[in-house]
């Protein structure tokens, strides 16, 4: 009797599975076409400041220890599509004697509310973190004025006489990281 019940249950389960698999179902499918993602553009340009006479790059010569050069100006324009943080660093130093090690750089920035001192120290910024030139991000379409001047350090040694120091300045923009 037990075998008959097991066989009947197995046959019933098989018939139910087949019947359930062949049952009719209604369905409907809809589609959303044209989904798109677009990446932002981070782009800055360095533009002469038309209101100032002395433009970057710095060309200061004949300095004596402790003497500061005139200000040299450049504008940083945010030509991108998003607000960005703007940084500056120095690299590619070329100098003889001890003049590069005794050259000080002062950097100030103005986004329309006055000049703010962003850096005042040695020109060797390569090992240091880049200078953030504006506390708040630079909005797309906004301009940041930057001015710089150099000083031959007051403790420059005699070996710096007649020597020159050259370097590059690199400006970098990074998009603001969105908050979730």
Explain what the structure shows.
- With 180 residues, this protein is mainly beta.
- It has a single domain, classed as Jelly Rolls, CATH 2.60.120.
- Helix content is 11%, strand content 34%.
- It has one helix spanning 2-21; strands at residues 44-47, 72-78, 84-95, 103-110, 116-122, 131-132, 143-152, 165-175.
- The longest helix has 20 residues, at 2-21.
- The chain is elongated and about 115 Å long.
Quick take:
The chain has 180 residues and is mostly beta strands. The chain has one helix spanning 2-21; strands spanning 44-47, 72-78, 84-95, 103-110, 116-122, 131-132, 143-152, 165-175. A hairpin with a 5-residue loop joins strand 4 (103-110) and strand 5 (116-122).
Index terms:
180 residues; mainly beta; Jelly Rolls; 3-stranded antiparallel β-sheet; elongated
Q: Which topology does CATH recognise?
A: Jelly Rolls
What's the shape? elongated
Helix and strand run? HEEEEEEEE
The overall pLDDT average reads 86
Structural class: mainly beta
Question: What is the rounded Rg?
Answer: 34 Å
Q: Major beta sheet, specifics? A: 5 strands, antiparallel
Residue ranges: pLDDT <50 for 5 or more in a row? none
